[in-house]
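re: ur msg from earlier - yeah i can do the S-adenosyl-L-homocysteine complex, just paste it... oh wait u already did. ok heres what im feeding in:
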Amino acid sequence: MNKTRPNRDELIRMLSLSQPEEIEALYKQAYQVKLQHVGNKVHLRGIIELSNICSKDCYYCGIRSTNTKMERYQICREEVLEEAQWCFQQRYGSLVLQAGEREDKFWTDFITELVTEIKELSQGKLGITLSLGEQTEEVYRQWFEAGAHRYLLRIEESDQELYKTLHPADHSFEKRRECLRSLRKVGYQTGTGVMIGLPGQTVEHLADDILFFYDEDVDMIGMGPFIPHKDTPFAHLVPGYDNEKALEAGLKMIAATRIALQDVNIASTTALQALKPAGREMGLLAGANIIMPNVTSTSYRKGYQLYEGKPGLDENAPDTRDALEKSILSIGESIAYDDWGDSKHFANRQVGAKE
Ligand code: SAH
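and the outut:
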C-alpha cells in the first residue's frame, strides 16, 4: 500500500510522455510494480450485460435513455443463471453483473434474487462483482448480504466542472461520490475509474483522477479510452479521433495508476481491445491484472453498444477462449482459475485498520 500521496507533477510528467522509448520504459516500470505487489497472474471475471435499460442520459454513452435508435432488452433469470453456470464451469472464479442504471424495487429485488441464486448454484464459490450504478445504501447492503462482495462504480471524471459538461444537470457528481463512500462503508471492495480522452480533458485532469482514486482509497480501478458513439451528442466532438493515440493514452493512464497506487486491482478493459485486437494484453503489460471476458448471450450483445466498434461478439466460443489463454501465456503471464482474485489493497487496508 502506498502510504505517501502521489506527486501530482510526477503524474503529469508520466502522462505527458511522448517519446516511444520513454513510454516503453514507463510500461516496464509499471509492470515491475505490478509484479512486486500483485504478481503476474491474471484473474478473469465473466461479465454479463444484464440489461441496457438506463435512466441516465450521459452525453457520451450509447445506451443513454434518450437514444431511441436501439432496442432495449433485459435478460431473463433463467438465461442469467445459465451464463453464470457457464462461467463457473469455465473456472473463471468470478463474474460481474453489469447493466444500465435503475433504482425501482422490481429491479433491485431481481438483482438480490440473482445474486442469491448464483451463490447457490456455485456452492458459494463464484465471486460476484456488481456494476449497477447509483443506488441507496440500503440497496447496496441488501445486495452485499445476498453475497455480492465487489462493486464497480466509475466516477467517470473526478473534476466537478468537467463532470458537468459530460452529464445533464440532474446528474450529480456529489451523489456518485457519496455512493462510492456508501459502498465502502457497507463493506464492498470498491472500484472506480474514469474515461480517458474525453472532450475537454487534459493530462492535469487525469493526474487529479489518480489522486482522487488515492484519496478515496479505492480497491479496484476500471478505466478505458473514451470511444465516440454516433447516436450520442458527443459523436462529433472529437474530430480526427486516432485509435493509436487513444490506446496509448489509455495505457499510460494504467501505467501511471499502477505506479501510484501499487496494490489495487486494475482491469484491462474491452475499450482497449476495441481500439486494437491485442489492446487488453498490452494493458496487462502496462500494469493491469484483471480481464473481464464477455459472457453475455451473443443475441443481446448488439444491444449493449456503449461505444462503437465494441469487440468480442463471440467471446464465449471455445476457440476465442483458448485464444485469450494462449495470448496471455505468450506475454509471460498466466490465468488464475477458480480464484476470486480479490484486491490486495482491500486485504492490506483490513490489516492496516487493525494495527
Ligand atoms: N451505468 C452503469 C454501468 C454501465 S456502463 C454504472 O454506472 O455503473 C459502463 C461504463 O462504460 C461506464 O461507466 C462508462 O465509463 C463506460 N462508457 C460509456 N460510454 C462510453 C464511451 N463512449 N466510450 C468509452 N466508455 C464508455
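cool cool. DSSP finds 14 helices and ten strands in the chain. ping me if u need the other ligands too
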